[in-house]
Amino acid sequence: MLNGLKNAFRIDELRGKILFTIAMLVLYRIGAHVPVPGIPFQGMAGLLGVAGDSVASGAMALLNLFSGGALSYVSVFSLGIMPYITSSIIFQMLQSVVPSLSALAREGEVGQRKITQYTRYLTLGLGLLNSIGYLFLFKSFGISFTGAGAPEIVFDIMIVGTLLAGAMLIMWIGELITQRGIGNGMSLIIFANIMAGLPQAIFSSLDGGTASIVMTIVIFVVIIAVIPLIVFIERGQRRIPVQYAKRVVGRRIMGGQSTYLPIKVNTAGVVPIIFASAILYLPAQLAVFFPGVGWVQAAASALSSGWLNWVLNVVLIVFFAYFYTSMVFNPQETADNLKKQGGFIPGVRPGKATADFIKNALNKITLPSAIFMAVIAIVPSIVFSFTGNQLIQAFGGTSVLIMVGVVLDTIAKVESQLKMYDYDGFFK
User: Fold this and answer.
1) Rounded distance, CA 316 to CA 322, Å?
2) Which domain holds residue 391?
3) How far apart are CA 271 and CA 130, in angstroms?
4) What CATH code is carried by the domain that includes residue 236?
């Protein structure tokens, strides 16, 4: 591992990408601590503490978790990355039902650029709605924004504009990391948010005597034991044997060799976890528009924590595992490519029969991997509901799955760059 990291910094281009990614994440974390102009920080310091005594505690905790603690600081990045993720989910789903978007997706880079542009416009609209909602949330705590002789509407516009600009800046940072850095910018920002809340969660977990110290040690032991299992599932493959027919090309005989078609056990990666979290995050976002309506706050809290949240989490993770797998892996296209190259699966006829065989194999391995992710995601939430340990909430199953998935994905991208320069990767 250390040797691979050393080799990565020997390559100028790769070193530049790694340092650029780190710089962008540092910039993001700095922005998470810059307060919104016009908001009295002393008045907002107890925002989450006040919410903790109401039915909205689950929703507020979820909002703060996905903003990396930025909401508790009332910073310019309070909206976090979720408006962009929500927009991405909407357009991912629309591609399967809207023919024009599906045609754009098949046009390659040009089509993807147009879809990305539409995603940005939708992010702008969602960011504006969320900014207005957060303004209502802040005012629900009785904080006045008037001052310096200016009318309150001026401060309202400034606060909404600042929050919206922060959301668009986060989107820009994420896209820059994806284009010029290493790894997926959206996933790395979520990773940074999770890591940012870890130190405070550890101190909170330890602050409670001997029992709390023992509980913290047990949590870390369980996490360390689960990580290898997550890595095993993430890197697992179903290898379908493929035989290529012999062909005579000139005076040479081509083909005839045996190989395999690798299908990842967890083809969708951490995307189902992120998408499911984003969907369950929406009720908490909508609740900020109605801070004084009790049933709205109760519904948002029920969907953000508790048994209803656990059930929906399982359902959404399994759904998005199948949905995203169907988006990134097309059995029919794979079967057609095999047929064109003279390849076939032993005992299976080329064409539709091959596509059905691959689809059936994909469905069989997707279900257990999706259930595994769902169990890892909800079990810590169930344990947290009984123990109240903050470390479980901040570093639970969803966080561990996202972190391990992001790290493996980033390492895989670094490895691919290293192999271009004849260096050994991290995994030998």
Assistant:
1) 10
2) 2-420
3) 23
4) 1.10.3370.10
